Amino acid sequence: MNFIYNYFPNFNFQQKQQLESIYELYKNWNSRINVISRKDMDYFYLHHVLHSLSLAKFLSFKSGSSVLDIGTGGGFPGVPLAIMFPEVHFHLVDSIGKKIKVINDVKEKLSLDNITTHNERVENLIFKVDFVVCRAVAPLETLINWSIDKISTQQNHSIRNGFLCLKGGDLKEELSAYGSATVVPLNKYYNEVFFETKKLVYYPVD
Protein backbone atom coordinates (compact mmCIF):
# COMPACT_ATOMS: atom_id res chain seq x y z
CA MET A 1 0.00 0.00 0.00
CA ASN A 2 2.85 2.42 0.69
CA PHE A 3 3.58 3.04 -2.98
CA ILE A 4 -0.03 4.19 -3.45
CA TYR A 5 0.32 6.62 -0.56
CA ASN A 6 3.60 7.88 -2.02
CA TYR A 7 1.76 8.88 -5.19
CA PHE A 8 -1.40 10.01 -3.37
CA PRO A 9 -0.43 11.31 0.08
CA ASN A 10 -3.74 13.02 0.87
CA PHE A 11 -6.00 10.06 1.64
CA ASN A 12 -7.73 10.46 5.00
CA PHE A 13 -8.10 7.72 7.61
CA GLN A 14 -11.43 6.43 6.26
CA GLN A 15 -10.12 6.28 2.70
CA LYS A 16 -7.04 4.38 3.83
CA GLN A 17 -9.25 1.90 5.66
CA GLN A 18 -11.34 1.42 2.51
CA LEU A 19 -8.27 0.90 0.35
CA GLU A 20 -6.73 -1.54 2.80
CA SER A 21 -9.98 -3.54 3.06
CA ILE A 22 -10.63 -3.80 -0.65
CA TYR A 23 -8.10 -6.55 -1.36
CA GLU A 24 -9.69 -9.18 0.88
CA LEU A 25 -13.14 -8.41 -0.55
CA TYR A 26 -11.96 -9.04 -4.09
CA LYS A 27 -9.85 -12.02 -3.06
CA ASN A 28 -12.90 -13.67 -1.48
CA TRP A 29 -15.11 -12.98 -4.48
CA ASN A 30 -12.40 -14.10 -6.87
CA SER A 31 -12.38 -17.53 -5.24
CA ARG A 32 -16.01 -17.91 -6.40
CA ILE A 33 -16.26 -15.75 -9.52
CA ASN A 34 -13.43 -14.91 -11.92
CA VAL A 35 -13.65 -11.15 -11.45
CA ILE A 36 -9.93 -10.55 -11.82
CA SER A 37 -7.32 -12.78 -13.42
CA ARG A 38 -6.09 -15.15 -10.69
CA LYS A 39 -2.43 -14.31 -11.32
CA ASP A 40 -3.29 -10.60 -11.28
CA MET A 41 -4.47 -10.79 -7.66
CA ASP A 42 -0.78 -10.84 -6.66
CA TYR A 43 -0.49 -7.39 -8.22
CA PHE A 44 -3.94 -6.15 -7.26
CA TYR A 45 -2.94 -2.73 -5.95
CA LEU A 46 -0.53 -2.04 -8.80
CA HIS A 47 -2.48 -3.38 -11.78
CA HIS A 48 -5.98 -2.42 -10.68
CA VAL A 49 -6.07 0.18 -7.91
CA LEU A 50 -3.10 2.38 -8.87
CA HIS A 51 -3.94 2.00 -12.57
CA SER A 52 -7.49 3.21 -11.89
CA LEU A 53 -6.27 6.15 -9.83
CA SER A 54 -4.13 7.41 -12.70
CA LEU A 55 -7.23 9.27 -13.91
CA ALA A 56 -6.94 11.36 -10.75
CA LYS A 57 -3.42 12.38 -11.76
CA PHE A 58 -4.87 13.88 -14.93
CA LEU A 59 -8.03 15.44 -13.48
CA SER A 60 -9.45 16.08 -10.04
CA PHE A 61 -13.20 15.59 -10.36
CA LYS A 62 -15.14 18.43 -8.75
CA SER A 63 -17.53 17.90 -5.88
CA GLY A 64 -21.07 17.33 -7.15
CA SER A 65 -20.00 16.07 -10.56
CA SER A 66 -20.94 12.68 -12.00
CA VAL A 67 -18.96 10.02 -13.84
CA LEU A 68 -20.05 7.00 -15.88
CA ASP A 69 -17.78 3.93 -15.83
CA ILE A 70 -18.58 1.81 -18.91
CA GLY A 71 -17.88 -1.93 -18.84
CA THR A 72 -16.67 -1.59 -15.28
CA GLY A 73 -16.19 -5.36 -14.81
CA GLY A 74 -15.29 -5.83 -11.16
CA GLY A 75 -15.44 -2.09 -10.57
CA PHE A 76 -12.37 -0.57 -12.18
CA PRO A 77 -11.65 2.26 -12.46
CA GLY A 78 -14.91 3.24 -10.73
CA VAL A 79 -14.45 1.79 -7.23
CA PRO A 80 -10.97 3.23 -6.51
CA LEU A 81 -12.09 6.57 -7.93
CA ALA A 82 -15.20 6.52 -5.73
CA ILE A 83 -12.92 6.06 -2.72
CA MET A 84 -10.74 8.97 -3.79
CA PHE A 85 -13.64 11.30 -4.65
CA PRO A 86 -16.41 10.72 -2.06
CA GLU A 87 -18.25 13.91 -3.17
CA VAL A 88 -18.52 12.71 -6.79
CA HIS A 89 -21.22 10.30 -7.95
CA PHE A 90 -20.10 7.28 -9.98
CA HIS A 91 -22.39 5.19 -12.18
CA LEU A 92 -20.83 1.75 -12.74
CA VAL A 93 -22.29 -0.09 -15.71
CA ASP A 94 -21.82 -3.67 -16.86
CA SER A 95 -24.05 -6.06 -18.76
CA ILE A 96 -22.78 -9.06 -16.74
CA GLY A 97 -24.93 -9.42 -13.64
CA LYS A 98 -22.47 -11.40 -11.50
CA LYS A 99 -19.90 -8.61 -11.78
CA ILE A 100 -22.46 -6.04 -10.65
CA LYS A 101 -23.24 -8.36 -7.72
CA VAL A 102 -19.58 -8.18 -6.67
CA ILE A 103 -19.52 -4.39 -6.90
CA ASN A 104 -22.72 -4.12 -4.86
CA ASP A 105 -21.12 -6.17 -2.09
CA VAL A 106 -17.92 -4.10 -2.18
CA LYS A 107 -19.99 -0.91 -2.20
CA GLU A 108 -21.98 -2.04 0.85
CA LYS A 109 -19.02 -3.26 2.88
CA LEU A 110 -16.97 -0.13 2.20
CA SER A 111 -19.97 2.23 2.62
CA LEU A 112 -19.46 3.74 -0.83
CA ASP A 113 -22.75 5.57 -1.03
CA ASN A 114 -21.53 7.57 -4.03
CA ILE A 115 -21.76 4.51 -6.32
CA THR A 116 -24.84 3.49 -8.29
CA THR A 117 -24.63 0.22 -10.23
CA HIS A 118 -26.45 -0.60 -13.46
CA ASN A 119 -26.75 -4.13 -14.83
CA GLU A 120 -27.59 -2.74 -18.24
CA ARG A 121 -26.31 -1.90 -21.68
CA VAL A 122 -24.98 1.65 -21.61
CA GLU A 123 -27.10 2.62 -24.64
CA ASN A 124 -30.23 2.15 -22.52
CA LEU A 125 -29.24 4.62 -19.80
CA ILE A 126 -31.00 7.98 -19.82
CA PHE A 127 -29.04 10.25 -17.43
CA LYS A 128 -26.23 12.73 -18.12
CA VAL A 129 -22.71 12.81 -16.67
CA ASP A 130 -19.66 15.05 -16.82
CA PHE A 131 -17.25 12.33 -17.91
CA VAL A 132 -17.29 8.79 -19.25
CA VAL A 133 -14.41 6.63 -18.02
CA CYS A 134 -13.37 3.10 -18.91
CA ARG A 135 -10.46 0.70 -18.87
CA ALA A 136 -9.62 -1.35 -21.96
CA VAL A 137 -13.26 -1.83 -22.96
CA ALA A 138 -13.59 -0.90 -26.64
CA PRO A 139 -12.13 1.36 -29.35
CA LEU A 140 -12.85 5.06 -28.91
CA GLU A 141 -15.20 5.10 -31.90
CA THR A 142 -17.37 2.41 -30.28
CA LEU A 143 -17.37 4.17 -26.92
CA ILE A 144 -18.50 7.38 -28.60
CA ASN A 145 -21.30 5.59 -30.42
CA TRP A 146 -22.46 4.00 -27.18
CA SER A 147 -22.40 6.98 -24.91
CA ILE A 148 -21.67 10.42 -26.35
CA ASP A 149 -25.31 11.34 -25.73
CA LYS A 150 -24.76 10.69 -22.00
CA ILE A 151 -22.25 13.53 -21.66
CA SER A 152 -23.67 16.77 -20.31
CA THR A 153 -23.17 20.08 -22.13
CA GLN A 154 -22.86 21.88 -18.78
CA GLN A 155 -19.16 22.40 -18.13
CA ASN A 156 -17.90 22.36 -14.52
CA HIS A 157 -14.22 21.46 -14.85
CA SER A 158 -11.01 23.05 -16.09
CA ILE A 159 -11.23 20.82 -19.18
CA ARG A 160 -14.24 20.08 -21.34
CA ASN A 161 -16.50 17.16 -20.50
CA GLY A 162 -15.67 14.02 -22.42
CA PHE A 163 -14.06 10.59 -22.35
CA LEU A 164 -11.18 9.46 -20.12
CA CYS A 165 -10.02 6.02 -21.24
CA LEU A 166 -7.22 3.82 -19.92
CA LYS A 167 -5.61 1.98 -22.82
CA GLY A 168 -2.40 0.30 -23.89
CA GLY A 169 -0.37 -0.39 -27.00
CA ASP A 170 -0.17 1.52 -30.27
CA LEU A 171 -3.17 3.85 -30.58
CA LYS A 172 -2.29 5.62 -33.84
CA GLU A 173 -4.83 3.83 -36.01
CA GLU A 174 -7.59 3.88 -33.39
CA LEU A 175 -7.20 7.62 -32.82
CA SER A 176 -6.42 8.68 -36.41
CA ALA A 177 -9.90 10.17 -36.89
CA TYR A 178 -9.87 11.95 -33.52
CA GLY A 179 -7.45 14.83 -33.79
CA SER A 180 -8.61 16.48 -30.57
CA ALA A 181 -7.76 13.40 -28.49
CA THR A 182 -4.91 13.79 -26.01
CA VAL A 183 -2.73 10.78 -25.18
CA VAL A 184 -0.90 10.81 -21.83
CA PRO A 185 1.68 8.06 -21.15
CA LEU A 186 1.17 6.86 -17.59
CA ASN A 187 4.91 6.61 -17.00
CA LYS A 188 4.65 10.39 -16.75
CA TYR A 189 3.02 9.80 -13.36
CA TYR A 190 4.41 6.44 -12.20
CA ASN A 191 7.86 4.84 -12.09
CA GLU A 192 6.78 1.17 -12.12
CA VAL A 193 7.60 -0.88 -15.24
CA PHE A 194 3.94 -1.94 -15.55
CA PHE A 195 3.02 1.56 -16.70
CA GLU A 196 5.59 1.88 -19.51
CA THR A 197 3.03 0.87 -22.16
CA LYS A 198 -0.08 2.21 -20.43
CA LYS A 199 -1.81 5.38 -21.59
CA LEU A 200 -4.69 7.66 -20.75
CA VAL A 201 -6.74 8.99 -23.65
CA TYR A 202 -8.77 12.16 -23.13
CA TYR A 203 -11.31 13.01 -25.81
CA PRO A 204 -13.31 16.22 -25.23
CA VAL A 205 -16.89 16.53 -26.42
CA ASP A 206 -17.90 19.82 -28.04
Characterise the protein shown here:
This protein has 206 residues and is of the alpha/beta class. It has a single domain, classed as Vaccinia Virus protein VP39 (Rossmann fold), CATH 3.40.50. It is built from seven helices and seven strands. A seven-stranded mixed sheet has the order 3-2-1-4-5-7-6, sandwiched between helices. Helix 4 links the parallel strand 1 and strand 2. Helix 3 crosses helix 4. The longest helix has 18 residues. It is globular. The model has no long low-confidence stretch (mean pLDDT 95).
Give the overall form: globular
Q: State Rg.
A: 16 Å
CATH architecture identity = 3-Layer(aba) Sandwich
Give the tally of β-strands.
7
Which percent range describes the beta-strand content?
15-25%
CATH superfamily: Vaccinia Virus protein VP39
Our count of helices gives 7
What is the first-to-last residue Cα distance? 39 Å
Main sheet specs = 7 strands, mixed
Count of individual domains = 1
For the record, the CATH class is Alpha Beta
Assign the structural class, choosing from mainly alpha, mainly beta, alpha/beta, alpha+beta, or little secondary structure.
alpha/beta
Summarize this, please?
The chain is α/β, with parallel strands linked by helices and 206 residues long. It contains 7 helices and 7 strands, in the order αααβαβαββαβαββ.
Indicate the topology.
Elements: H1 2-7, H2 13-30, H3 44-58, E1 66-70, H4 78-84, E2 89-93, H5 97-109, E3 115-118, E4 131-135, H6 140-147, E5 162-168, H7 172-175, E6 182-185, E7 198-204
Parallel strand pairs: 1-2, 1-4, 2-3, 4-5
Antiparallel strand pairs: 5-7, 6-7
Helix pairs in contact: 3-4
